[in-house]
Amino acid sequence: MSDDYKLETLAVRAGIERSQFGEHSEALYLTSSFVFKSAAQAAARFGNQEPGNIYSRFTNPTVTVFEQRLAAMEGAEVCIATSSGMAAILSCVMGLLKSGDHILCSGSVFGATIQLLGNIMKRFGVDTTFVSGTDVAKWQAAVTPKTRMFYVETPSNPLTEVYDIAALKEVARKAGALLVVDNCFCSPALQQPLALGADVVIHSATKYLDGQGRVLGGAVLGKREVVYEGVLGFLRTAGPTLSAFNAWIILKGLETLNLRVQAQSAAALELARWLEEQPGVERVYYPGLPSHPQHALAMRQQKSGGGIVSFDVKGGREGAWRVVDNTRLLSITANLGDTKTTITHPASTTHGRITSEARAAAGIGEGLLRVAVGLEAIEDIKADLARGMR
Ligand SMILES: *Cc1c(COP(=O)(O)O)cnc(C)c1O
Asked: Does a structural domain hold residue 2?
């Protein structure tokens, strides 16, 4: 599809390949394997002399539509879909690194990412150093001769720290390392990390891309030589592939991504401003607020602040749990990017399994709450939060 089309157009049109029936909506190909016309054709497909589908662990037409659409929206050469966001991170690390390699990872990342890189990969000889803070000089100082990957979430979960992608790319390039950016919080509707210099983009499609809290999925995007030559072999062999059904759900989600994220981001800004004025709130973390330490950088890299607002309430864990337990509308759940607003207490849930020292280093206090703004009326969301803060 033409590169000249805008994101909104690509979101509903990119990747479509109609079958002989001429269906308008994308077809769902629920099949584990594909049949061949002859033994010779089977051999040609397996031998890579003829393009085409073989088995859904390798390729599936519905998954391919999702991959092409997301690639177009991120401005990526290629995309490969995975069964979850964590499967995308695992495939990226397993496909691109080997024993003895070293990762620099931002200290404030998704809890399972800390576990995967800090504990599990360590057993296979891949060491990770977590760099605290967004200061690029700290990353430079932490580089070792073995550093092969920089891994960053921007804005980060849950503190919405913003990292300078272009500046990190410079440091990574000089170190001979790839810059991997988890673009979950912004989605391509608000930020396109590849255009800013990232080598690889990671998605948890479970979040904004599906956008309605239905299925798990993930994706790895970037240049053909990195993603296809590096990551694809691991994915096809090890098997954390996206199912055709989930691909179909998520690709329909992509069609409304821009509308949803714009609305959620506007509502989140209003909520963040309101929270700043509440006496029960100590601090608000939201990149769209002028009080955010990296507000200027965020506004350069992102179209707007995004849909996630975190804030510290007075009274530590007790105060935070009181706010959570007094909600009647908001969903007490760890998911984000849903049309339904969700509220999470990171210290006891998403970041509950990491050590309290690691939590403190990441700045995740006992009074911290994370709200992922959905599509309800903002007045109703405010009223629901106000109850527990009184
Ligand atoms: C949820 C999330 C992940 C993991 O994705 P799953 O689909 O749950 O495996 C990774 N990174 C970020 C920022 C997330 O929010």
From this structure: no
